[in-house]
C-alpha cells in the first residue's frame, strides 16, 4: 500500500498531478481544491495517498491531510458514492466542511457537490454521522503532509542522541483532549464560549474522556433541543 508520496511536481492536469519521486513518476488524482493548492511544476510537494485497486485499474488519490484521506475512505463506504463522488464532496466542502456538514446533519451542503443527489447526500449524513467525532479527533493537532527535507536541503546531523519524551501526566492528557475538542468544535462553526461551556461540562461528567468522546458528548449538548 502506498500511503504517502513526496517528490517534485512534473505537471498538473485537470484532475491529477504527476509527482516524480527519485526518477519514478506517480499519477495522483486529487480534488479541484487540492490541485489548486499544490505548487507549480518543479516545486516539491507531498500528499497522503489512498490506492484504489480494481480488476483493470490501479489509481492513487492524494490528500493534504490524514483527515481528508480518512473522509475519502469513509465516503466511499457509502452506497452510491465512488471515488469521483467522494472527491467531488471533498472538493466542494474540504475536510473541515465535510466534518461540519456530517456532524451537524447538513444534507444540503453535501448535496451541493457536483453529481450528488438528495438521496445520496442523506445516506452520507445518516451513515457517517456517528463517525464524524472520531475523524475530527484524528484531525485535531495533526500536521499536513510535508515534502521530505532531503528534497530541499540536507538535514544537519544531530549533535547528540535525542532524549525520549516523558509520557504526559493524566492531567496534561485531559487538558490536551479538551483543547483538541475545542479546536474541532471551532471548525464546526461554534462560538468559542458555547464550545468551551459544552466541552467543560462533558469533561466534568467524564474527567478521563479522550478527544473523540469529548467531541461526541459536546455535540449532544450543543444540539438543538426539541
UniProtKB/TrEMBL annotation:
<keyword id="KW-0067">ATP-binding</keyword>
<dbReference type="GO" id="GO:0005737">
    <property type="term" value="C:cytoplasm"/>
</dbReference>
<dbReference type="GO" id="GO:0009379">
    <property type="term" value="C:Holliday junction helicase complex"/>
</dbReference>
<feature type="compositionally biased region" description="Low complexity">
    <location>
        <begin position="154"/>
        <end position="171"/>
    </location>
</feature>
<protein>
    <recommendedName>
        <fullName>Holliday junction branch migration complex subunit RuvA</fullName>
    </recommendedName>
</protein>
<keyword id="KW-0234">DNA repair</keyword>
<dbReference type="GO" id="GO:0048476">
    <property type="term" value="C:Holliday junction resolvase complex"/>
</dbReference>
<keyword id="KW-0233">DNA recombination</keyword>
<dbReference type="GO" id="GO:0000400">
    <property type="term" value="F:four-way junction DNA binding"/>
</dbReference>
<dbReference type="InterPro" id="IPR003583">
    <property type="entry name" value="Hlx-hairpin-Hlx_DNA-bd_motif"/>
</dbReference>
<feature type="region of interest" description="Domain III">
    <location>
        <begin position="175"/>
        <end position="226"/>
    </location>
</feature>
<feature type="domain" description="Helix-hairpin-helix DNA-binding motif class 1">
    <location>
        <begin position="108"/>
        <end position="127"/>
    </location>
</feature>
<dbReference type="GO" id="GO:0006310">
    <property type="term" value="P:DNA recombination"/>
</dbReference>
<dbReference type="InterPro" id="IPR010994">
    <property type="entry name" value="RuvA_2-like"/>
</dbReference>
<dbReference type="GO" id="GO:0009378">
    <property type="term" value="F:four-way junction helicase activity"/>
</dbReference>
<dbReference type="InterPro" id="IPR012340">
    <property type="entry name" value="NA-bd_OB-fold"/>
</dbReference>
<dbReference type="GO" id="GO:0006281">
    <property type="term" value="P:DNA repair"/>
</dbReference>
<comment type="subunit">
    <text>Homotetramer. Forms an RuvA(8)-RuvB(12)-Holliday junction (HJ) complex. HJ DNA is sandwiched between 2 RuvA tetramers; dsDNA enters through RuvA and exits via RuvB. An RuvB hexamer assembles on each DNA strand where it exits the tetramer. Each RuvB hexamer is contacted by two RuvA subunits (via domain III) on 2 adjacent RuvB subunits; this complex drives branch migration. In the full resolvosome a probable DNA-RuvA(4)-RuvB(12)-RuvC(2) complex forms which resolves the HJ.</text>
</comment>
<dbReference type="InterPro" id="IPR011114">
    <property type="entry name" value="RuvA_C"/>
</dbReference>
<dbReference type="Pfam" id="PF14520">
    <property type="entry name" value="HHH_5"/>
</dbReference>
<feature type="region of interest" description="Disordered">
    <location>
        <begin position="144"/>
        <end position="171"/>
    </location>
</feature>
<keyword id="KW-0378">Hydrolase</keyword>
<dbReference type="InterPro" id="IPR036267">
    <property type="entry name" value="RuvA_C_sf"/>
</dbReference>
<keyword id="KW-0238">DNA-binding</keyword>
<dbReference type="Pfam" id="PF07499">
    <property type="entry name" value="RuvA_C"/>
</dbReference>
<dbReference type="Pfam" id="PF01330">
    <property type="entry name" value="RuvA_N"/>
</dbReference>
<feature type="region of interest" description="Domain I">
    <location>
        <begin position="1"/>
        <end position="64"/>
    </location>
</feature>
<dbReference type="InterPro" id="IPR013849">
    <property type="entry name" value="DNA_helicase_Holl-junc_RuvA_I"/>
</dbReference>
<comment type="similarity">
    <text>Belongs to the RuvA family.</text>
</comment>
<keyword id="KW-0347">Helicase</keyword>
<dbReference type="InterPro" id="IPR000085">
    <property type="entry name" value="RuvA"/>
</dbReference>
<keyword id="KW-0227">DNA damage</keyword>
<feature type="domain" description="Helix-hairpin-helix DNA-binding motif class 1">
    <location>
        <begin position="73"/>
        <end position="92"/>
    </location>
</feature>
<dbReference type="GO" id="GO:0005524">
    <property type="term" value="F:ATP binding"/>
</dbReference>
<comment type="function">
    <text>The RuvA-RuvB-RuvC complex processes Holliday junction (HJ) DNA during genetic recombination and DNA repair, while the RuvA-RuvB complex plays an important role in the rescue of blocked DNA replication forks via replication fork reversal (RFR). RuvA specifically binds to HJ cruciform DNA, conferring on it an open structure. The RuvB hexamer acts as an ATP-dependent pump, pulling dsDNA into and through the RuvAB complex. HJ branch migration allows RuvC to scan DNA until it finds its consensus sequence, where it cleaves and resolves the cruciform DNA.</text>
</comment>
<keyword id="KW-0547">Nucleotide-binding</keyword>
<keyword id="KW-0963">Cytoplasm</keyword>
Amino acid at each position: 500500500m502506498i500511503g504517502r508520496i513526496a517528490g517534485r511536481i512534473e505537471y498538473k492536469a485537470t484532475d491529477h498531478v504527476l509527482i516524480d519521486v527519485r526518477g519514478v513518476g506517480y499519477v495522483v488524482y486529487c480534488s479541484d481544491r487540492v490541485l489548486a493548492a499544490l505548487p507549480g511544476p518543479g516545486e516539491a510537494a507531498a500528499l497522503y495517498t489512498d490506492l484504489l485497486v480494481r480488476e483493470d485499474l490501479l489509481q492513487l488519490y492524494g490528500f493534504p491531510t490524514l483527515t481528508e484521506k480518512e473522509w475519502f475512505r469513509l465516503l466511499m463506504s457509502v452506497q452510491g458514492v465512488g471515488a469521483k463522488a467522494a472527491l467531488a464532496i471533498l472538493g466542494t466542502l474540504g475536510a473541515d466542511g465535510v466534518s461540519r456538514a456530517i456532524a451537524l446533519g447538513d444534507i444540503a451542503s453535501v448535496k451541493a457537490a457536483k453529481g450528488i443527489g438528495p438521496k445520496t447526500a442523506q445516506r452520507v449524513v445518516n451513515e457517517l454521522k456517528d463517525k464524524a467525532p472520531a475523524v475530527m479527533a484524528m484531525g485535531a493537532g495533526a500536521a499536513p503532509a510535508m515534502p521530505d527535507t532531503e528534497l530541499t536541503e540536507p538535514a544537519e546531523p544531530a549533535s547528540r542522541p535525542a532524549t525520549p519524551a516523558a509520557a504526559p501526566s493524566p492531567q496534561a492528557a485531559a487538558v490536551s483532549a479538551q483543547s483538541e475538542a475545542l479546536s474541532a468544535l471551532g471548525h464546526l462553526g461554534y462560538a468559542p464560549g458555547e464550545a468551551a461551556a459544552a466541552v467543560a461540562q462533558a469533561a466534568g461528567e467524564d474527567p478521563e474522556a479522550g478527544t473523540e468522546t469529548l467531541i461526541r458528548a459536546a455535540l449532544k449538548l450543543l444540539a438543538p433541543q426539541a
